[in-house]
Amino acid sequence: MDTNRGAALAVLATGMLMTILDGSIVTVAMPVMQSDLGFTPSGLTWVVNAYLIAFGSLLLLAGRLGDLLGRRRLLIAGTVVFVAASVLAGLATSPAMLIAARFLQGAGSAMSSAVSLGIIVTLFPAPAERARAFGVFAFTGAAGASIGQVLGGVLTDLLSWHWIFLINLPIGVAALLAMRFVPTDQGLGARAGADVLGAFLVTAGLMTGIAAVVQPAGRVLFASAAVLLLAGFFARQATARTPLMPLRILRSRQVAGANVLQILMIGAMFSFQILVALYMQRVLHYTALQTGLAMLPAALSIAVVSLFGSARVIARFGERITLIAGLALLVLAMAWLTRLPADARFVPDLLPVMLLIAGGGLALPAITGLGMSGARADDAGLASGLFNTTQQLGMALGVAALSTVAASRTAGRLASGASEAVALTAGYRLAFTVSAVLLAVSIGVAALVLRSPAALAAAADREPAGAPA
């Protein structure tokens, strides 16, 4: 890997790290934000939800714009929006101001994240180099949530919650100065077509769909609107002259299977980050700083595996086997959590989980490589946007569903007379059981649906010209 391409990868990884950090860094600081800004308990959830809604719903549109206008151009624009919104969030003096800034952060993250994988695919065409690049990129995604909680705890306890946002300013400026290493691409040009109606339908559909997941009030109305809007989007894509998302991309079993699997896997993994942090604070009474530091072994284990082991394992056994092995480790991690006591000790009860979660360092680069290998070269931006969209959907769906499961079990145990610690622990244990099941289903999807790039190439050779993937 030459110096310029390595520097370009560092820029992309830095942007991804900022994006993932801001999805998790607020979790340990939310109680302080609530006290300082006067959030209601229900309003506080929108500090996370506003970011997820903007991020998840704009990714497809951003991916297509990257193909049309140039991926480097959209990467720079997204970074500028994200950094400006971070400053606004850091200076927030009211709940409305912070929520608006978080929405803008999500929009900027969507713009930069949607094109990152497409740029990596172009920069690293050789399979071995691409595997190493995906390993670096996957580290920022898998470990970023844990790093966010560590950094959030440190900054909140030692400085103030404002700095969890203001720290993005120097990082973002450094990333912008290094954009010269990212190669310039012309894009297809605006004349190639931007499906405005399709963009409106999918953006509105995803926004209302994610809102239905994260906002209990009005859930049926939001869900119904989402179904209608997304049905209209797919109907539009089948007839539009220049569709936003050509439906041919979903004819690839590889692309469709990888995105479905990612929803299941990310839903379980991101829920682990949130629920374990809540367990530490609400049951074990850890401080924000203690919680962040307790999550550090998870970040380190993922970093070691994704940066130094995943490319070698993929080269030796292939992406599909590596993915299944990583998922198996994650199943073991969730299964271990199902036995958590209400008076857990860190070393015997939690540290093994932090080490087993390193399976994410194998699974994420492997699923990324498998998903992107099923897309055509001129659909790289679209495939990248779609892949990031399902990642955000997995986060939103997983957190909402598993938090609801945990809360329901906790309420039942409280009603039967259990102590708060015992009731909370029972709720979290049930949520971790569901997570283990989701990951086990993911192994089945990987085994039955996904194929290695070599198998795809062999199948393509056997198919007549023009046959769908």
From TrEMBL:
Principal localisation: membrane
Transmembrane segments: 7-32, 44-62, 74-101, 107-126, 133-155, 161-182, 194-214, 220-239, 260-280, 286-309, 321-338, 350-372, 393-410, 430-450
Location relative to the cell: Cell membrane
Keyword vocabulary terms for this entry: Cell membrane, Membrane, Transmembrane, Transmembrane helix, Transport
Topology in the lipid bilayer: Multi-pass membrane protein
Domain Major facilitator superfamily (MFS) profile intervals: 8-454
Protein name, entry field: MFS transporter
Origin species: Dactylosporangium siamense
Lineage summary: Bacteria, Bacillati, Actinomycetota, Actinomycetes, Micromonosporales
